[in-house]
């Protein structure tokens, strides 16, 4: 069976059996593609679906009445899009593809069917949702308590850890399509400030983000600088055998 | 059957059947009490349990290496404590009772058993986790994009909405045990700043927080001032019948 990014990711939590893998594969029926920059889900929308990201990057965000935007998180292959509010009457956020993306569409009824067939999969999806929340918590700590350079370093390390899990990164670095504007909206900085902080981290020999690639120049020192403790990503091995 | 705060809360998402209510009641076997100020769960702890809060208030927080603290959220009756990381190898956060509290302790095996018996309950727990995440997202928007007065107003309205759902508040207000120090650690403000902002909101005739009670002096104007859209609390009625 093809090992999708989602299967790789859930494997960090639970050793899925063949029948469970079949149920998971059945969630991948409705394949769709979306082009960069056009919302898949809009804040306030009802009857919204969730999606599993197969390839490309997306971002989830909220817009205030005065037009300010806060990017909540970026999604990479293996992540759910819109899982948080698929069970809500209306979506509490918008989702925009950062690049062209391939997804599979998942309806609430698909989730209910899958959970009925294999409760362990329900637990795995709850784990994935918990991990998404743990990342938002770190973004709150970022914006609330870390200075701009630590914030950026923590954020680039988190993305690295997530991408390693789905085979798209290493301790050397990863391909990253994010612009400085997107980084600014995620980290609560201006684009000019993002540029300055990236230069500062590069000149300190810690990390270089250039030409669509994040290179960890000194992974250990960067980790120490950002006080990055990856345990909230819970990638150290499956709890459920 | 006794209608616990959790049953009241989940009722906003799903009309639970009698068998489902029995399974939920079976989660309430291990009753425990904790005194204010002593952590139930510590960041980095393994083999942690989750808890369902029956009475009292708690807070979840993260501490940085330099000792700074960010309160992620407060929990009120009907909320889970530690649900986010009960499926993780180690807890990513700490939980402290704000008042003396009564809880029931829930182990991962209890959750797995309950999900196996009724998949709809698994969906309801996923909904509760999604709602917790939606609140953390709003706290990120608070700290990232709202000024101090809007931030405080939004936060007090959110708590009000949550308490109404479990029968502990109304549009007039609610009993609130939070100190200015706790509000400061949640909102990324100093205690002095919290004091100033509360005075400002009171003098504007919007809301008064005094002697352990939050009084909405003008609920509609406060809602408009904070741009508070409660749809992320998803309390408008059950999606699943």
From TrEMBL, chains A, B:
Stretches assigned to the Cyclic nucleotide-binding domain: 12-89
Give one GO term, molecular function aspect.
Answer: DNA binding
Gene Ontology cellular-component terms for this entry are: cytosol
InterPro entries, sorted: cNMP-bd_dom, cNMP-bd_dom_sf, Env_Response_Regulators, HTH_CRP, RmlC-like_jellyroll, WH-like_DNA-bd_sf, WH_DNA-bd_sf
Pfam families for the chain? cNMP_binding (PF00027), HTH_Crp_2 (PF13545)
The keyword Heme is assigned to this record: no
| Domain of life (superkingdom) | Bacteria
Q: Which SUPFAM superfamilies match?
A: cAMP-binding domain-like (SSF51206), Winged helix' DNA-binding domain (SSF46785)
| Residue span, HTH crp-type domain | 146-220
Spell out the protein name for this chain: cAMP-binding domain of CRP or a regulatory subunit of cAMP-dependent protein kinases
Q: Which organism is it from?
A: Poseidonocella pacifica
Its lineage reads: Bacteria, Pseudomonadati, Pseudomonadota, Alphaproteobacteria, Rhodobacterales
């Amino acid at each position: 069976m093809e090992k999708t990014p989602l299967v790789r990711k859930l494997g960090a939590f639970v050793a899925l059996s063949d029948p469970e893998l079949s149920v998971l594969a059945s969630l991948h029926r409705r394949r769709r593609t979306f082009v960069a920059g056009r919302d898949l889900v809009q804040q306030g929308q009802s009857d919204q679906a969730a999606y599993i990201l197969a390839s490309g990057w997306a971002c989830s965000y909220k817009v205030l009445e005065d037009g300010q935007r806060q990017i909540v998180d970026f999604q990479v292959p293996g992540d759910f899009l819109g899982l948080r509010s698929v069970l809500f009457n209306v979506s509490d956020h918008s989702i925009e593809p950062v690049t062209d993306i391939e997804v599979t569409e998942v309806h609430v009824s698909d989730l209910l069917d899958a959970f009925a067939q294999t409760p362990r999969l329900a637990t795995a999806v709850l784990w994935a949702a918990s991990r998404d929340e743990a990342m938002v918590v770190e973004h709150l700590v970022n914006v609330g308590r870390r200075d701009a350079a630590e914030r950026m370093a923590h954020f680039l390390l988190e993305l690295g850890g997530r991408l390693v899990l789905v085979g798209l990164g290493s301790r050397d670095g990863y391909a990253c399509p994010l612009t400085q504007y997107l980084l600014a909206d995620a980290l609560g900085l201006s684009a000019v400030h993002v540029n300055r902080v990236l230069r500062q981290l590069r000149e300190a020999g810690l990390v270089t983000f250039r030409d669509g690639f994040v290179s960890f120049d000194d992974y250990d020192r960067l980790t120490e600088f950002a006080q990055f403790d990856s345990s909230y990503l819970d990638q150290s091995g499956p709890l459920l055998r």
